[in-house]
Amino acid sequence: xxxxxxxxxxxxxxxxxxxxxxxxxxxxxxxxxxxxxxxxxxxxxxxxxxxxxxxxxxxxxxxxxxxxxxxxxxxxxxxxxxxxxxxxxxxxxxxxxxxxxxxxxxxxxxxxxxxxxxxxxxxxxxxxxxxxxxxxxxxxxxxxxxxxxxxxxxxxxxxxxxxxxxxxxxxxxxxxxxxxxxxxxxxxxxxxxxxxxxxxxxxxxxxxxxxxxxxxxxxxxxxxxxxxxxxxxxxxxxxxxxxxxxxxxxxxxxxxxxxxxxxxxxxxxxxxxxxxxxxxxxxxxxxxxxxxxxxxxxxxxxxxxxxxxxxxxxxxxxxxxxxxxxxxxxxxxxxxxxxx
Length: 340
Description:
five-stranded parallel beta sheet, 2 domains, Rossmann fold, oxidoreductase activity, acting on the CH-OH group of donors, NAD or NADP as acceptor, disordered C terminus, 12 strands, NAD, alpha/beta
């Protein structure tokens, strides 16, 4: 009889659907903040659903009390075989630890793809159409049109590189093409037919950056993408290029970006993710008029949480029928242990 670790909200709102997918013998082990599960109860756990309400306002390193408790319960379940998470990335330390322990992990990749793509598009339009300038002018009660030599260049005809070709990256590329931009896509492993669709491997970034007015990051943090965008890449872009990061903070060398912004090599950035989250109050990014800071919130939308659960329900039915799981994490997303 399988036992599933869930939050009280999931047990309350999806109990019937979980039993329909997992069979009538499915037992729900509910992580209650007031009464955590005992070691004996955790011994019975086979599967865990880390839902969005569990994550709450946690970052990778700063956890809410309930997220901390849920992580402790996950790590205290010695028979845990499979865990589903509400994100596309698996770089949270607890996810990495369970991966190293041999736990299978499936993601909710695609559940927030449209929302993230829309947020990335917001960043492109704010930076490319003078939005940050007008926000600051409004705060100063200034009528400050951008005309003549100060008029924004046409977006149509510009070139963008979208790093990451998962559901988010593909959605961003489609929206940018709709605006008339020429788009190159980058992914870790090129596939047959990619060249005809302007999709390349990560190794092409340095060369392609020479023609890129926009660099949009929508990839996971792996050993292949850590600091992928460094000073060399930023300085290769045409002067005045712009950066949008809705992927992971560790993909971008933040010190190199600050230096490029200071010199004018990069004229603006929209950053939703950072190496340290929450972004410290003393970070230079906060005060820069050429930077839009959003608090790792690009994927937030009213329907996101339930879409993640429905992805899990589909996989739970597959698990029950001993069928392959969808969106299972591959080995190359396991990060090495951090240095001690």
